[in-house]
Amino acid sequence: ERQALPAVALTADSTIMTAIGNDYDFDQIFARQVQALGQQNDVLVVMSTSGESRNALAAISAATRLGIKVVAIVGNGGSIGDSADIAIRIPSSSTPRIQEATVAVGHILCELTERQMFSASN
Fold first, then answer.
1. DSSP labels for 54-91?
2. CA–CA dist 27, 45 (Å, integer)
3. Alpha carbon of 85 to those of 32, 34, 51, 73: distances in Å?
4. Residue 45 carries which DSSP code?
5. pLDDT per position as a tens digit, 51-61
6. d(Cα 93, Cα 84) in Å, to the nearest integer?
7. 122 has a pLDDT exceeding 80
8. Which of 47, 44, 16, 43 is nearest to 29 (CA)?
9. Angstrom distance (rounded) from CA 77 to CA 75
10. What is the pLDDT of residue 77?
11. pLDDT band of 119, cuts 50, 70, 90
């Protein structure tokens, strides 16, 4: 047991994603949420197989304006990794391999966060 950490998956609320997509543009579905929920000292984790997802790039731009650090998990190409504070590049151009590695990297980041913030040894 440890202190709870706030975290939000910006993909989880289909109602907000549909509303933003319809009222603004689907390129803004994550940026608008970052603008509404993000605070300085937060971290935005962006995952993109292609590294070129316009909605992820818009979210990074919104996060940067708010002083939010950005970690990107991407494949070989694309500009998303270049826009992030930290880019974790999966050395592949195969979509399935990038997606599989992204899951593993996500688990590793969670474990490292646990160890760094809460001195967990498991």
1. HHHHHHHHHHHHTT-EEEEEE-S--SHHHHSSEEEE-S
2. 17
3. 20, 16, 14, 11
4. E
5. 999 999 999 99
6. 19
7. no
8. 16
9. 6
10. 86
11. confident
